[in-house]
Amino acid sequence: MTRHPTRNPFTHSETAAVGVSVEGLSKSFGRFEVLKNITFAVPPGEIFVLMGPSGSGKSVLLKQIVGLERPSAGRVTVDGRDAASETTRGQVRMALVFQSGALFNSLSVYDNLALYPREHQIADEAAIREKVMRALQILSLEGTANQSPSELSGGMKKRVAIARGLVMEPQLMLYDEPTSELDPVMSATIAEIIATLKEEYHVTSIVVSHDRELALGIADRVGILMGGELVSLGTPAELRNPPDPRVAEFLNPKIDLQHPRFKKLET
Amino acid sequence: MNQLTAILEGIGSTVQLLFRAASYTPTLWRQRARFIEQCFLIGYTTLPIVAILSFFIGSVLALQAGYSMSNFGAKQFIGSLVGLSMARELGPVMAAILLAGRVGSAIAAELASMKVYQEIDALETMDIPPARMLVLPRLAAVLVMMPVLAIIADLVGWFGGALISKYTQSIAIEPEAYFSVLRRFMEFKDVLNGLIKAEVFGFAIVLVSCNIGLSTRGGPREIGAAVTKAVVTSLIMILVLDYFVTKALMHLQS
Ligand SMILES: Nc1ncnc2c1ncn2[C@@H]1O[C@H](COP(=O)(O)OP(=O)(O)O)[C@@H](O)[C@H]1O
Ligand SMILES: [Mg+2]
Known about the structure:
By secondary structure, chain A is α/β, with parallel strands linked by helices. Chain A has helices spanning 58-66, 88-91, 109-119, 125-138, 154-167, 184-201, 212-218, 236-239, 245-251, 261-266; strands spanning 20-29, 32-42, 47-51, 73-78, 81-82, 94-97, 172-176, 204-208, 221-226, 229-234.
């Protein structure tokens, strides 16, 4: 994998990496239990990829980690602080790339990216401009700076959302299916960004993805969520021969390691 | 029972939102661009229609007053009746009702759609409190604009009354006479009274509409429901508050 560390503008000082710990987490909506007693920990600086069929509760889990929703039982801590507490967001910089992008529709792409540094008065307009334009450039979005989010395609929105996260210079970055609407080259770029953030800036990343290549390529560990339970947790190497038949089927509906589908598609 | 808890919950979250927004008041100066934008929005959506409707309200007041007062030869007092009714009651209430329809509904729609499309969640993860960025500038703007709207409603209403009084054959009172009676029987405190009422209505409408927008749950269909709820709640609030504020102001001034 090629990386471009010199192009990385995200963090100028060494950020303290933060760990995430999920202990006995359950979440119900009414009588419907979406997450069932989930326990895992992501050490500082790790890339943790979370996979699982749609509807298995991955997005709900991410919302628990950033503290948008309170757990029904159990606890989530980020850097040792309770994720559900409002003060945690002031103390730990977390960025969540929403599955839908969640861009501010009334603001231009540029203003979407500039909002965080402006509101937190982190830099003057000139410095913000530089940061924003570099983040846009990395995601090949320079041309869209003055466009409104409603004028963008789904994949472009997702890239803007990622760029908006990068401008925040987060200590913990969470991605909800970041590559689901992107072409292969752009997907690879995202994978490179995630890996670079880890290597150079010790950013902790939690990535929800169906992208096996991304998972196996950059993950330190992979967790698999099925029906609200964490059914597998291990390194990418361990995932190549999962003991659990459900996991094996999910990862390889028809296992054919000699002629993988994605290779056929590429030629 | 469910209805009652929902209403109490609504009141609770509205008060909470008020305190939150108020706690960010020191940030208002650096948010002045948003504040000014909201002032313009309130101004250009509401002013024209306030002017038009107040004109007709003033006119119809003069007509009705002319009809009933000429029975006992008191039609020269039309000016004071139109003047006081507009200033103390109809100016502020009309302005508030139109604010609810144009601004309250727009606020509820905008914030509800931001909520439904997770923009509010995004703000929260960015540690940008919605109460600071979205609510405070709107509350400040309505406090500045509401007296303007009410004064314009008063002036246009008085003018409409004067015009009708002159050109209706059964009334036929010259504007000079109309306005001199209006001035003689009205004090500054009557106008002030109305402005205070307008201020209370406007503030309540914007606060409640913000809270309803931000409390939206579920899918896009809920955006429409939020708008309806904001307008209906605002109208009920105007009429209920009207009684109590009027009562309180009378009490204070006696
Ligand atoms: N706010 C909510 N209210 C009720 N049910 C919800 C809510 N959010 C998510 N769910 C349910 O939780 C389950 C998991 O959702 P989600 O985490 O979005 O799945 P995914 O793994 O595809 O991201 C789904 O069945 C969804 O319907
Ligand atoms: Mg999801």
